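A further point concerns the way the authors explain their paired sequence and structure data. An entry of this sort, consisting of the sequence and the corresponding C-alpha cells, reads as follows:
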Amino acid sequence: MTPLVQIHNLLVRRGEHPALQLEHLAIQNGEVLAVVGPNGAGKSTLLLTLARLLKPERGEIQFNGTQASAESDTDYRRRIGLVMQDPLLFDMTVFENVASGLKFRGINKDEIRNKVPLWLERLGVGHLAKRRANQLSGGEAQRVSLARALILEPKLLLLDEPFSALDPPTRSHLLDDLGTLLKETATTTVFVTHDLPEAAQLATRIAVIVSNRLRQVSSPNEVFNSPVDEDVSRFVNHKVRRNGNGAA
C-alpha cells in the first residue's frame, strides 16, 4: 500500500540555521503519528512544512503518490486539517465556526444544517451550538476547533500540541474522545506533543526528532524500551522521570 505522505531529503531553514533535516519519512494511511522531541528540535517545523506554511530549501513531499508541489497551495490545503495549540476561533457562534469551512467550500445550506450538529455531538459540544466562541472554556474551544477540522473529512489531520494548555482532567477526556474518533474515521494524523504518555495513548507510531534530525520512528513500546541511540534514550528517560510514571 502506498503511504499517504512520503518525505525525502528534506531541509528546512528558519533564518540562517537548519531547523529540520529529514532523509526519509513515510506516513501510512490511517495511522496516528506522534512527533516528539526536545524544545526547538524541529517538531513544529515538520508540521508547518506539511501544512505548506513553511517552504523547504530542498527535498520532496509526495501526497498519495504524487508530488505535492505540483498543485496549488489552495488545492493542497483543501486536503488537510490543521489544529493549533490556540484554537483561533472566529468571533461568532460555535455552529457558525464549525460551518465556516463548509461554507468556504460552497457546500449547500441543507447539508451544512445536517452535518454540523452531528460533528458537534461527536465532539461533545452539541449543547454549545448557539454560544459565542469568546464564552467557551479552553477545553470547549479546542473541541470546537477539532470539529471544525474534522467535519471537512481531511485526508491528513495536523495537530500542534492542541492539549498543552488544558488542565489534566480536561486533557484526559479530550484525548479519550479524540482517540475514539480517529479510529472510527481512520483519519491519518500527525500529532506534535511534548508529552510522552499523551503520545503513547494516541499514537500508532512515534517519531523522535533530536537536534533537528529524525532519529527514530517506531511503535511506542520500541521507542520507550529500545531507543536507537544515546540522544533518544536520554530524551525518553528524562521525560519518563519527569512524568514520574510509566510511559515505558
